Amino acid sequence: MAKVISGIQQMGIGVPNVEKIWKWYRLNFGMDVKIFEEAAEAPLMIDYTGGKVQSRTATLAYNMLGGGGFEIWQFTSRETEKPKFDVQLGDIGLYICKMKCKSADLAYDLMQTNGANLLSEVRKSPYGTKHFYVADPNDNVFEIIEDPSFFKKTKHPVGGVFGCVIGVSDIENALRLYKDILGYDVVEYDGTDVFEEFNKLPGGTCKVRRVVLSHSLDRKGPFSELMGPSQIELIQVLDRVPKKIFENRYWGDWGFIHLCFDIRNMKDLREECEAAGFPFTVDSESTFNMGEAGGQFSYIEDPDGTLIEFVETHKITLVKKLGIKLDLSKRHPEKSLPRWILSALGMNRVKD
Questions:
Q1: Which three-class secondary structure state does DSSP give residue 25?
Q2: How far is the C-alpha of 235 from the C-alpha of 203, rounded, in Å?
Q3: Residue 179, φ and ψ in degrees, nearest 5
Q4: DSSP structure class, residue 144
C-alpha cells in the first residue's frame, strides 16, 4: 500500500526556554492546545547531537483553527546554542515558518498591540495572498499568511503551521524530494528578483529565485482534516554563497530543527525514499512513546541536509484529564478521524 501523507504535523523549534516562548506563542499565534509534554533522553538522534545522547524536554502544541503544530524543544543536558553568524534569507535550511490566518490585518493589529517584532507591513505576495512577517523573541521568523481553510472557528485570528520557507542550493534538485516524494506538485509562483517584501529580513535585499509550491491532491489520513493544506517555498540565493543554518551545531539547537509530516504506511514510505536517493537516517522502527502520544518516527535529509521528519501516530491521548485515549493502529490509513474526535483535542487547551 502506498504511503499516505496527512499533512504537516509540526515544526520543530529549538528554544532556550520552553515555557517562556510557549506563552508568547499562545498569545500571538493561539497555539494553546497541549498534545503532550515529555522530558527524556533522545538516544536515536545521537548522530545529530555530537555522538552523545542528549536530554531534552519537548512540548507539542496545536491551534484548533487548523494547521500543523509546534514541537517546542529544549536541551536539558546542555545549553541551547545560537548560530555563530547572522542567518540570512537564502541560507540553507528551514528559515521561515508559515502560519495560516483568517485575516492578516487582524493578526497584524493583534501583534502590533502585543509589541511583537513586525518585519513587514501587510501586503499582497506576488501570487496574490495577503501576508506579513514577524519575528518571535528568539529571532525566529514567521510568515502570517491568509488561507481560507480552517478546522474550527476560534477567537484567535492566527492558526497553525501552513508550511515553510526553505533555503536550498539548487531548486531543481530539491524538487526531487518536495515535489516527487512529498507531493507539492503545483507551482503557485516561480520568480527571480530582489523582492521588496523581504527588504526588512536579514539578507532580504539579495537577488533570489523563489518557488512557491502547493499540492493538487487533498491530504488524507487520520489528522488530515485538522492539519489541512500546506505550502512549501524554496529560496535559492543568487548573488552570494549561502551558509548552512545548522553548521557546526546540533539538531535541537536554537531555531527550526525539522519539518515533520504525519504519515501512514512507514514501510512503503521508506522504500520510496530509498529508491529516490533519500534513505532514512533515523528510524525508531517501532512505537516510540512521547508521554501522552506514541508512534514510529523517522528522518531523511533533503539534498542539502535539511531534516525532514515522518511520524506514524499509533496512539494519542484525546482528553488527558478524563483519561480518554485513541488507538490508531487498526484504522483505515486514508480515512480522517471524525471531526468530533479531532475537536476533543481542544479540551487540552492551556488558558492564560
A1: helix
A2: 12
A3: -90, -55
A4: E
What's the first-to-final CA gap in the chain, in angstroms? 44
> 3-state DSSP call for residue 240?
coil
Given its phi and psi angles, is residue 128 left (phi above 0), alpha (psi -120 to 50 degrees) or beta? left
Contact 148, 103 (CB under 8 A): no
As given in the structure block, the three cell numbers for residue 275 are: 529508491
In whole angstroms, how far apart are CA 344 and each of 35, 70, 147, 249, 300? 11, 19, 24, 38, 32
Round the CA-based radius of gyration of the chain to a whole number and report it: 19
Which ranges in 30-90 belong to alpha helices (H)? none
pTM: 0.96
The DSSP secondary structure of 324-338, one letter per residue, reads EEEE-TTS-TTPPPP
For residues 247 and 268, what is the distance between their CA atoms, to the nearest angstrom? 32
Tell me the three cell numbers of residue 351: 488558558
Q: For the chain, list the strands marked E by DSSP.
A: 4-14, 33-41, 55-62, 69-75, 93-101, 117-118, 123-124, 130-135, 141-146, 158-167, 186-193, 208-214, 231-237, 255-264, 282-283, 288-290, 293-301, 307-319, 324-327
pLDDT in tens, the chain (352 residues): 689 999 999 999 999 999 999 999 999 999 999 988 889 899 999 999 999 999 999 999 999 999 999 999 999 999 999 999 999 999 999 999 999 999 999 999 999 999 999 999 999 999 999 999 999 999 999 999 999 999 999 999 999 999 999 999 999 999 999 999 999 999 999 999 999 999 999 999 999 999 999 999 999 999 999 999 999 999 999 999 999 999 999 999 999 999 999 999 999 999 999 999 999 999 998 655 555 567 899 999 999 999 999 999 888 777 767 677 788 878 898 999 999 989 988 988 999 8
Whether the CB-CB separation of 83 and 89 falls below 8 Å is answered with: no
User: Do the beta carbons of residue 317 and residue 36 sit within 8 Å?
Assistant: yes
Q: Which residues contact 196 (CB under 8 A, 6 or more apart)?
A: none
Closest CA to 219 of 5, 2, 1: 5
